[in-house]
Amino acid sequence: MAADFRYRRLGYLSLNVSDLEKTTAFLTDVYGMDVAGDAEDGSRFFRIGHWHHDIVLKQAETPSFGRSSWELETEEDVDKAMAHYQKIGLAPQLIPQDEAAMLGLERAFRIVEPKLNTVWEYYARMSYTSAPPTNGLTNFEGGKHYGLVVPDCKSLTEYMVENMGFMVSDYLEGWRASLLRAFPNPNHHSFAPLQFPSPKPTFHHVAFMVKEIDDIGKLFNRIKRFNVEIQFGIGRHPTSGSIHLYIYDPDYFVWEYTLGMEQFPEEGAREPRRMSADPSNFDLWDAVPDTKHAAKFPGLVTS
Ligand SMILES: [Fe+2]
Fold it and tell me: 33, 178, 220, 227: which could form a disulfide with 46 (CB 3.0–4.6 Å)?
């Protein structure tokens, strides 16, 4: 059943990390985020702009992807989304008020999607922090997206289009990858299911949009000082036209900077393209993804 609620943006990701201090150092000194405080339960918030947080990290035995949280346009959209997910049998659960308050959210609910059994959270209002970030390493644009390695890209894509309010912007021939936008957010993609590099479901990458090519160039040089490895790039995606650099954090979560993404109008958007999977078309600057750490990609928390 088609979704009748409207997305504003990908709000934040929750990641479980094996060494909170190490990943904190990576996010502040290499990636350029501000620490935005610690919660009572020990999780740590990070931000790139004025919203309460863009990433929350939790100390854990094993690194894993916890959940994604999506901002809808209005409180009415939250009601519509809850009713929609109720109707299609996903039993949305409002999170307890004290947990919502800890997360800087007015109210939020969660569902478990039935294809991978990952948790999706929805809200409309997150606290706005008046003080600007102070990190200064990078000019973040504000947009972000993430990708997961999934065993069946086509069926997940079809489910998300049919039931979760996403639209296909482009896909790779054979449906080995698709790039989905969270309608009516104009970014070419906010979520990307990829059927490679491994057959088991894992986290693939999280990307933050930056404002200038200088941000990517400076990251390229900065990572050498911190012995951070590159996963992919510097390159340019043939799909969204964006310039990219993907790097590994201490747990082999992959963090991308991305610049210049195609924007889609709400009405009259172009049809999805079936992109060639030939290696020569994989990257416009001939960048080749690193695969030697693929087995270390963190897994997914499932319910
Ligand atoms: Fe990306």
Answer: 33
Cα(207) to centroid of ligand 1, in Å?
5
Alpha carbon 155 to its chain centroid, in Å, reads 20
**Which DSSP string corresponds to 228-242?**
PPEEEEEEE-TTT--
Q: Tens digit of pLDDT for each residue in 182-193?
A: 999 999 999 999
> 10 C-alpha vs ligand 1 centroid, how far in Å?
13
Nearest to 170 by CA among 22, 90, 32, 272: 272
CATH 3.10.180.10-classified regions of the chain: 7-123, 140-300
Its pTM stands at: 0.97
Separation of CA 65 and ligand 1 centre (Å) = 16
What spacing in Å lies between the alpha carbon of 89 and ligand 1's midpoint?
31
Domain covering 7-123, topology: 2,3-Dihydroxybiphenyl 1,2-Dioxygenase; domain 1 (3.10.180)
CA of 256 to the centre of ligand 1 (A): 6
Ligand 1 midpoint to CA 173 (Å):
18
Asked if 225 and 162 count as a contact pair (C-beta separation under 8 A), the reply is no
User: What is the tens place of the pLDDT at every residue in 98-133?
Assistant: 999 999 999 999 999 999 999 999 999 999 999 999
User: What does the block give as tokens for 295?
Assistant: 């087995």
CA of 87 to the centre of ligand 1 (A): 32
Q: Read off the pLDDT of residues 1-54 as tens digits, 9 standing for 90 and up.
A: 689 999 999 999 999 999 999 999 999 999 999 999 999 999 999 999 999 999
CATH class assigned to 140-300: alpha beta
